[in-house]
Amino acid sequence: GAGVSQSPSNKVTEKGKDVELRCDPISGHTALYWYRQSLGQGLEFLIYFQGNSAPDKSGLPSDRFSAERTGGSVSTLTIQRTQQEDSAVYLCASSSQLRGEGRFSNQPQHFGDGTRLSIL
Amino acid sequence: KQEVTQIPAALSVPEGENLVLNCSFTDSAIYNLQWFRQDPGKGLTSLLLIQSSQREQTSGRLNASLDKSSGRSTLYIAASQPGDSATYLCAVLDFGNEKLTFGTGTRLTIIP
Questions:
Q1: Which chain A positions have a beta carbon within 8 Å of B31's beta carbon?
Q2: How many whole angstroms separate alpha carbon B21 and alpha carbon B5?
Q3: Helices and strands of chain B, counted as H and E runs
Q4: Do residues B110 and B46 touch, judged by C-beta distance below 8 A?
Q5: Distance (Å, rounded) from C-alpha A72 to C-alpha A49?
């Protein structure tokens, strides 16, 4: 398909286990974002990748969270030693860029359907 | 720190009515503002994006306005339909920042 693809769609795991969530962005999109949507918390930013630049990790909640983006395309979000408070929907988005007004302008972000993570 | 608020949190209206959803933000130094809809169990679908230099954008029955100086945006939906039922989220992109700050959304229900 032409949209952002995330896998798995649902993940249930035991507390303390590691999990990997995958995101396939739209082909040609240079920017990739991870967000987390928790009940009662709304959507919060986790991490942002732009081309070959160093990622913006300012939203990662703890050092148990990490993400990488290989070859400027697919991204993996890894959560180590999962805790119950990690239960949430993890959303990935991608966008293209245009240059204008002295900076790059990220075009509308296109979201995947998310991975619903449940920690028992 | 940017904060985005959406009021009301939930709204129910009869089919066919026009309605307005509200979004306010605390820091007016934004680059753009985006409205999304989210259906249950799904990701976000982008509806409209307004650049900071624009005052409104229209797509079909949807019209979004932006008053940057007062930190407000509205999403106007004309002739509402049951298929419009969803959660509507607004998000702002600040200058010098590449991450969206989201409001908590308005859950809209259109009553047939």
A1: 105
A2: 11
A3: 0, 11
A4: no
A5: 9
pLDDT in tens, A41-98: 789 999 999 887 888 888 999 999 999 998 878 999 999 999 999 999 999 999 887 6
Minimum mean pLDDT range among A99-113, B19-33, B51-65:
A99-113
Determine whether A81 is exposed, middle or buried from the number of CB atoms within 10 Å of its CB (0-12, 13-18, 19+).
exposed
Residue B4, classed as helix, strand or coil, is strand
Chain A residues within an 8 Å CB radius of B43: 4, 6, 91, 111-114
**In Å, how far from its chain's centre is CA A68?**
10
The closest alpha carbon to B97, from B47, B52, B57, B58, belongs to B52
Give the C-alpha separation, B67 to B23, whole Å: 10
Asked, as a colleague might, if the bond just before B8 is cis with ω within 30 of 0, I would say: yes
